[in-house]
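Hey,
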Amino acid sequence: MSRPGVVVTGVGLVSAAGIGVADNWRRVVAGEPTAARDPALVGCPIDFACRVPGFDASGLLGDRRAETADRFTQLAIVAAEEAMAHAGLGPDGADPTRFGVVLGTVAGGTATMEAQQAKLLREGPEAVSVRTMTMGLVSMAAGELSIRFGLRGVTMTVATACASGTNAIGIARDLIRSGKLDVALAGGADSPLTPLHSAAFHRLGALSRRTDQPLAASRPFAASRDGFVLGEGAGVLVLESDAHARARGATRLAEIAGYGTTADAYHVTRPAPAGTGAIRAMLDALTDSGLEAGDIDYVNAHGTSTRRNDEVESAAIAAVLGDGVAVSSTKGVTGHPFGAAGALEAGYSVLALRDSLLPPTANLTDPDPCVTVDLVAGAARGAKVRAVMSNSFGFGGHNACLVITAPR
């Protein structure tokens, strides 16, 4: 029995590559890295990051919303508003009780929590803002989107480390496919550019130490890579049942054809040897999509720029799809925006399908000889793109994979 299709009808993107789909895609396709010294990280051992440029929350959202929402929520709202406009969805475009929100995050409102903890220690309990919890909870971005757009369907937050955004899209797809929803805002948002996050990941040895060359620091699959770069952003897709999109005459941009998610059950930070969990997630997504390995034209890799992740992921991709598949990581441009990563990368995958164009991996001047897949480097590559695989893997052994195809 055929299962109902779930299509993408709107995309909203905010990252260090820019505010909006057009700016994001331009810089990602150009392979222009974005890392720079960050004012929030002055005095930290690693003092650079990939911050959204020129993000004026008051100008974009109004003073009240800027004052009462953590930055990760602000980013989510801006991305969601673009996605809704792109989809052509107004207040009467769908039954609000069958329109949901599924959003992934890792850090949530920890910037707010860090600031208020410092105020508590410095000035005492009465100095703590009454808005601390409503800004700091990881669930607030999803809640804010529900309130802002009057959406009363299933609304939830997904926290599966750096697989969160991808899992959120997969879960939303499944909710629509099951008949519980007609439409969903799905994606991820994170803004972990704080001294605590920088210090903690530095202590883990996960961050690049190229403080003298921030622009060259995020270099997935390069032999000289030495860690990831903190990033921030939000990616939101409008997902609809194919029937709903057709009934309202929406432009169907792509289909979420396959979804797979697994756990390594191995280690809190290291991937399972030989990428067994990642392989199962990719195989499950392929099976779910009904496609064969040879049908995948491009993989938007998790590709964090950490030595172990890149080696294990590339070996897993080769095991599932073969050495000839084209692969790149857009984190060379955006850095690693945690729970937003998979959502942004799903958006870039939709755009790769739209434009028949594969974005390059920035800073990939010295490919790791251990990586045997076909790495897209130097410049974007024109190609026939029928199906894209988008991978996300997170601490704790969380693995998630999407197969995104042209609408059928």
